[in-house]
Specification:
By secondary structure, the protein is mainly alpha-helical. It folds into two domains: 119 residues; 101 residues, Four Helix Bundle (Hemerythrin (Met), subunit A). Helix content is 79%, strand content 0%. The protein contains twelve helices and no strands. Helix 3 runs antiparallel to helix 6, helix 3 packs antiparallel against helix 8 and helix 9 packs antiparallel against helix 10. It starts with a helix and ends with a helix. The relative contact order is 0.07.
């Protein structure tokens, strides 16, 4: 009887174990869950926007160079032109060196003839500079047309994101103003207009995930505009832009990391000094403090970019 009970229990145990294995083998296997894409990666600024910014940078760089060159003495402008020509055409260098070894007949000419020769050299210099400026203006006109194309390529994306129409319109108005300035060959006004574009570019980047606060770009815009307005003695206009700078800085400061504390202090001290300089109409101090803010802002931008990359 005991053997019979033992065998019954053994059979039950075997059947139970078999059922457990059967259920386990029939249960569906879990498929590996694909990793979700990084949200930051998905919300990166599009190539069209980066291309637009690069096109603006190119025009600003060219206009700045032309503007700074126009403030130099004529002989220095000529030297710059000749230096560029030598870089483009090295073959002409030997010929120019040979021309410099002429007999000392210059010592024998009369004062009147020497004055006339100086005038002719000056006239030749002016023609050479004017010719170089004409080449640069024609290139700028092409660059502006290219900028329009870059803007149209990005504008569709901006509208699709239901971006504020005000920002889009402001950017377009500034771009149209830049086009007119270049067409009329007004370099300084063109520089003001291209600088204005930097006020609106950061608004586009705010829509995406950026490595550093886009508002830093607005700080840089404001300082550059203050420099240009002060150069033309428009101190009231500079004061208005300075107030804008202070407002933008209040929004930017909380977004910066603690490691940027020293740079933050430098900007705030320099901004306070810049305020005093504008009040006193002190051009030398305005230039010095503006340059400090620009350099520190660029460092601040890079410092915050590095922080994002480490994450």
């Amino acid at each position: 009887m005991k053997k019979h009970v033992f065998f019954n229990r053994l059979i039950v145990l075997i059947i139970s174990v078999s059922m457990v294995f059967a259920l386990t083998s029939c249960s569906p296997q879990k498929k590996p869950v694909p990793k979700a894409k990084d949200k930051k990666e998905e919300n990166k600024p599009p190539k069209e926007l980066d291309d637009l910014r690069k096109a603006v940078d190119k025009i600003e760089k060219a206009l700045t160079k032309m503007h700074e060159s126009s403030k130099m003495p004529l002989f220095m402008q000529q030297e710059e032109i000749q230096k560029k020509a030598k870089e483009e055409e090295k073959g002409g260098q030997q010929k120019k060196e040979g021309q410099g070894t002429q007999p000392t007949e210059v010592d024998l000419v009369t004062p009147e003839a020497q004055t006339k020769e100086t005038q002719l050299e000056l006239q030749k210099m002016k023609i050479e500079i004017e010719k170089a400026n004409r080449t640069q203006i024609e290139q700028l006109k092409k660059d502006v047309m290219e900028l329009h194309g870059k803007w149209n390529a990005y504008e569709a994306k901006a509208v699709a994101l239901i971006m504020t129409q005000t920002t889009i319109k402001d950017f377009e108005d500034s771009l149209n103003a830049l086009t007119k300035s270049i067409d009329s060959e007004n370099v300084f006004q063109g520089l003001l207009d291209v600088t204005q574009l930097y006020k609106y570019l950061p608004d586009f980047y705010l829509t995406y995930t950026s490595k550093s606060p886009p508002e830093i770009g607005k700080v840089i815009f404001a300082v550059k505009k203050i420099q240009l307005l002060s150069e033309k003695k428009d101190y009231e206009g500079a004061k208005e832009v300075l107030e804008y700078l202070k407002g933008v800085w209040m929004l930017t400061r909380p977004k910066l990391n603690e490691k940027s504390k020293d740079m933050i202090n430098q900007i705030e001290f320099a901004t306070s000094d810049l305020n005093d300089a504008i009040e006193k109409k002190d051009d030398a101090i305005i230039k010095a403090k503006s340059e400090i803010i620009l350099k520190v802002s660029e460092k601040l931008e890079k410092a915050n970019e590095k922080k994002e990359e480490k994450k």
